[in-house]
What we know:
By secondary structure, the protein is mainly α.
Amino acid sequence: MDANTWPLLEQIRECLDQNDGLAEEQDRRFLRLLKIGEEFGKPGETVLGALSLKEGGTREDARHELCDVAITALVALVTLRPDAEMDFDQRLWQLVYRLQKEQVANGVDDRAFPQGKVHVTPHPLA
């Protein structure tokens, strides 16, 4: 992600808000969360297709569908929270820190996470 990611997500949210025909903010939030569920099934279908277990779908299609899931989830987050970027960053730091702590506790070489270049300390807001 780069400096344009969050402003673009906000633009998507604004566009959806203007065109979704919903008067109630609560309905809008609920439907954005349901949309994540709808998008979630698509990568699985394309992976099955890419593995020739089901007709259609390529690995590239699966990657695109996973991006759609991530974007849909982030737009929902932006809809729910005006400070979504901070929430996302804080949660990402928490998860990485927890994983790194678990690796060290399990005797796994901490250089293996990730590529031995990032040593994570708790996020200042965590």
